[in-house]
Amino acid sequence: MCKILVLLLFSFCFFVTNAIVCREGYTLVNNKCIAFLPPYHNSGYYTSYDQCNDLGGNAVSIRTAIDNTAIAKLAINKGYLDKIWIGLECWEDNNPDDCIWADQQGNASRYNNFQPGNPQIDNGKCVYMIPSTGKWVSEDCFSSSITIACETDIIGACTHKFGDYCYHPIIGRMNHDEALNICEQMCGGSLVSIHSPEENAYIHALFNDPSIYIGAKMSNSARNYWSDGTNWNYDNINFSNINDGQCYTMSRDDGKWNSRGCEEYLSSVCKWKASSECQATCTGPKYREETGLITLLTHQLSYIQYRGVPPCYYVLHVPNGSAAIWFDSIRLDSKSSIEVYSDTGNSTPIAVITSENEYSKGSITSSGEFIKLVFNQCKDNCDVTRLYWWTAHFGMNYGARCGEVLYTNGVITSQNYPNNYPNNYNCTYYIQNPSGTRPMQIHFDHFETEENHDFVNIYNQQSGVLYYSLSGNLYSNATYILDALCQSVRIEFTTDGRNTFSGWSASFNPWYY
Ligand SMILES: *[C@@H]1O[C@H](CO)[C@@H](O)[C@H](O)[C@H]1NC(C)=O
Ligand SMILES: *[C@@H]1O[C@H](CO)[C@@H](O)[C@H](O)[C@H]1NC(C)=O
Ligand SMILES: *[C@@H]1O[C@H](CO)[C@@H](O)[C@H](O)[C@H]1NC(C)=O
Ligand SMILES: *[C@@H]1O[C@H](CO)[C@@H](O)[C@H](O)[C@H]1NC(C)=O
Ligand SMILES: *[C@@H]1O[C@H](CO)[C@@H](O)[C@H](O)[C@H]1NC(C)=O
Hints:
This protein has helices spanning about 1-15, 45-55, 65-75, 175-185, 195-205; strands spanning about 25-30, 30-35, 60, 85-90, 100, 125-130, 135-140, 145-150, 160, 165-175, 190, 210-220, 225, 245-250, 255-260, 265-275, 285-290, 290-295, 315, 325-330, 335-340, 350-355, 365, 370-375, 390-400, 405, 410-415, 425-430, 440-450, 455-460, 465-470, 480, 490-495, 505-510. Strands 1, 2, 3, 4, 5, 6, 7 and 8 form an eight-stranded mixed sheet that branches. The chain has four domains: about 25-150, Mannose-Binding Protein A, subunit A (Mannose-Binding Protein A, Chain A); about 160-275, Mannose-Binding Protein A, Chain A, CATH 3.10.100.10; about 280-395, Sandwich (Jelly Rolls), CATH 2.60.120.290; about 400-510, Jelly Rolls, CATH 2.60.120. The protein is mainly β. The relative contact order is 0.09. It is built from five helices and 34 strands. The structure holds 2-acetamido-2-deoxy-beta-D-glucopyranose (5 copies). One 2-acetamido-2-deoxy-beta-D-glucopyranose binds next to loops.
């Protein structure tokens, strides 16, 4: 009796402290978050499928009878009594082996619930479910007026627990920064940090990919650190490739960590403390070092629809430099704002960005090594009818330090900016593409020089080809995306002996679509 009571108490605590959350509008059924999206423009399965993808989901994949029944019941509860697209496409009559699930994780041979005589390709390659019976029927993919069952990830489900931490594998195709952002929105987690051989073995058993990102990174000063800010007290580095890149991956073969570039698209593992943090509105500060991307949100999902738990604020640190932040893309709702501070305390913000002034999204530079960024997100009666997001980069403010070779994200300016630049002046910068694989983007926040006299020339440093020769006032036509093959550019600023203007300020970083 006593034992049972203790057990019950335990499971109750477990239930309370591991908040399992679906995004707004989605319902949790059997560890899946499901929403039914009514026919989109009445143009069939593929259009609805794309709409579900745009919301960060995928047409539902059903692998057990329990899931099938649960989804059928949910559809009925929500009033969808007719037909429901599921994420299955078939290529051969009466052969579920040749039906492929939308999550690309296999076919319907192990479980299916086809109505006798199906799949029937003459009727179409797509498949709907009849909620009242749970049976599956083939249908023309362009058949209109069918609702789709859209499935998204659970936020904060502690499906893999080791010690006091939850682990969540993210399968597939994100670069290091993108994966880190997703992890930060899972109960304020981060890419996994590893502190013992046992923990390393546990992570190693979680995935099948040849290699995955872990949270280990090497700074420009060759110091290793964890992206969650914990101590570097254990490592399993493969020392034969120590200088191949700044991010570490774990190998499937033996769990060794290999140094790799940060721009490859790989799977990864998130980690967060298995406490009640998921129920909080924010989860403590997030510390990031040197350079990078921070964002709410990726995947075209509005931060309003996404009920992950973001960090309370970000602290961005650019060692030995002046820190700068710039927004690549931003659309705020009228009830949210972003405050930017020059230090980690509660001084006066150096900038407050709202929906009123977001168009003036030039770079914001700190007087010191730190920037603190606070996102005050709309809490009540938020506008859910439009998409809202922001993405920002941070890096070094190099200012007007002529002759320098720059390796990482940052901001450069003309001499004396925003005051007038000198006459008879010549300054050259060399910028190495910070990503090996992505095109480089140079964005001029401001550009005003004497037209046809004072030039900014952008060259491919290897081939010598002149990409752009800029002068005058660029107004808003100021983003230049250089081709991915260009690994190094030279930027020359030359002025003649007469007339000066306020000059220019430019941020550069890898280009994200
Ligand atoms: C279907 O999946 C099973 C394993 O789940 C696999 O053995 C089989 O080869 C697959 N069939 C096809 C046609 O891909
Ligand atoms: C260690 O690095 C070397 C060189 O890149 C590579 O050939 C080898 O496979 C790596 N070892 C493991 C266990 O990943
Ligand atoms: C910062 O500068 C000092 C002095 O120049 C140098 O010793 C130190 O290594 C630098 N630290 C980093 C992280 O670059
Ligand atoms: C500016 O300086 C660079 C490097 O010293 C030189 O190659 C270039 O010819 C100079 N340009 C002008 C217009 O003086
Ligand atoms: C913007 O810049 C591009 C590239 O330099 C140029 O081709 C285009 O004509 C410019 N557009 C406007 C409106 O100035």
